[in-house]
Amino acid sequence: MEIKELRVNGQRLRQSLERMATIGATPAGGVHRLALSDEDKEARDLFIRWLKDLELDVTIDEMGNIFGRRGGRNNDLSPVMSGSHMDSQPSGGRFDGILGVMGTLEVLRTLHENQVMTERPIVIADWTNEEGSRFSPAMVGSGVWAGALERNWAYSRTDRNGNRFEDELIRIGYKGPAPCEKWPVHCYYEYHIEQGPILEREQKVIGAPKGIVCLHWYDVYLEGEANQVGPTPMEGRHDALCAAAEMILKVNELPERMGGNLVSTVGEIQSYPNSRNIIPDKVHFTVDIRSWDDDQAMSAWKLLREDFEAIASRRGCPIKMEETWKVEHSPFDEKLVQRILNIADQLSYSNLYMVSGAGHDASYMNQVCPTAMIFVPSIGGRSHVEVENTNWEDCEAGANTLLHAIIGSAQES
Length: 413
Ligand code: GLV
Ligand code: MN
Ligand code: MN
Hints:
Layout: H1 10-21, H2 38-53, E1 57-60, E2 66-70, E3 80-85, H3 98-113, E4 122-127, H4 140-145, H5 151-156, H6 165-171, E5 187-193, H7 198-202, E6 206-212, E7 214-223, H8 240-257, E8 263-265, E9 269-272, E10 282-291, H9 294-315, E11 319-327, E12 330-331, H10 334-346, E13 351-356, H11 362-365, E14 371-376, H12 392-410
Parallel strand pairs: 3-4, 3-5, 5-14, 6-13
Antiparallel strand pairs: 1-2, 2-4, 6-12, 7-10, 7-11, 8-10, 9-10
Helix pairs in contact: 1-3, 1-12, 3-12, 8-9, 10-12
The structure holds glyoxylic acid and manganese (II) ion (2 copies).
């Protein structure tokens, strides 16, 4: 068979995704597979078994990133890398991240069974803690690997129950022996669901993002004065939750104030002591700001800071703000993006040039080597929720696009 006729096995890809979806399955059809949890370990163990079935050379690094290497004709050449993540949001979907890992695995299985030998080696990657939901920030495995984040800082991050990242990594047996530092990579592909409504609205099957927006994460801590809710008059209260409520609305109004091209969200909040008859005296909440324009995102935060300070002082609630994480916007390699669009054309899949509003390990990989992504539609534009869904035919189309993108790059001398 000619290489250009090669296609993945869509049925097998579906079976791999369905099997992975049983690990951490939730009653409403989603998955709960937080980074470094028992479920994450179970998915990793299964993944490694599947890599070994293909006789790949498996490496685990000290951040728990898993790599499987398939040799090429010339093993002195840097490999083509493709992958994503297997961790999920607390009540996440069965496609986010895992599609890119299982999609790459399906590409490797297809090459294996057709005995296709490429010029360059190919490496499949599962990056640790992409979601940043249990341990913030996101994309830490790829971030440390790329040299953008410090390993020891990542190790010291804690979850809501005070568990340290490194301790959890050791507990699940995935603090590997290999140093977590970048090595030469020819190019990186990441296959993912869109997680938004554009492809479906435009009735396109394949998306090729020109890049990823910037992601800025902040943590806000407020203090108030706790007291009995009944006898304490409304005047003179220092209610930390009311201060937070005003601030949260400022976050929601921010994009309109900035003239668009920006999204800003408060997704997480903790209020203490969290009792219906005590005035809250401690609140923590998060702020997430994203834009293609880094300067605009920075100006937005400056404005927000000023608002927060004014609200905090008016309500007599001392405030502490932490700038937890920043990733600049990532414009992908234009030639690779064009290659994705051309391959989609050749395979007769309708396609669209777009932008990624979601963060991906591809952001950090873009700092290391030429990078591009392949998107497929999210039904109803829903993601990070249990009903997250993508048609099986679209999953197969994305994997075929990935197959030919990987082959094209791996044949380059
Ligand atoms: C990653 O899932 C993000 O976009 O927050
Ligand atoms: Mn993802
Ligand atoms: Mn996600």
